[in-house]
Amino acid sequence: MTNEQKDEQLWKTAKARVAFKSSLTSYLIVNVMLNAIWYFSGGPYSYYWPVWPALGWGVGLAFQYFHAYHGGKIFSSESE
């Protein structure tokens, strides 16, 4: 691998990590707002519906994390 290829790979990794941190921030802000809406509209004695968007988005966020910090090689034979 040449230095130019290594630099390009480093930039891709850095961009993926910045994108993950941005997505994580959005996830936290939106989920706090959804929980506030749930709390003030029905309260703790109503159906806890914010769990569904949190779980769905959380799965996608987990995949984004593994791609950004483990290079997508978590399930490959190279990781052994």
Structural write-up:
This protein has one domain. Helix 1 (3-41) runs antiparallel to helix 2 (51-70). The chain has 2 helices and no strands. It has 80 residues and is mostly helical.
Layout of SSEs?
Elements lengths: L2 H39 L9 H20 L10
Helix pairs in contact: 1-2
Properties at a glance:
single chain; 80 residues; mainly alpha; 2 helices; 74% helix
Range of helix content: over 70%
- Quaternary state of this entry equals single chain
Based on Cα principal axes, name the global outline: elongated
Summarize the biggest pleated sheet: none
Strand and helix order: HH
Q: Averaged pLDDT, please? A: 90
Q: What is the count of DSSP helices, taking H or I runs of 4+ residues?
A: 2
* Content of β-strand: under 5%
Instruction: Please give the domain count.
Output: 1
Distance between the termini: 22 Å
Short recap of the structure:
By secondary structure, the protein is an all-alpha fold.
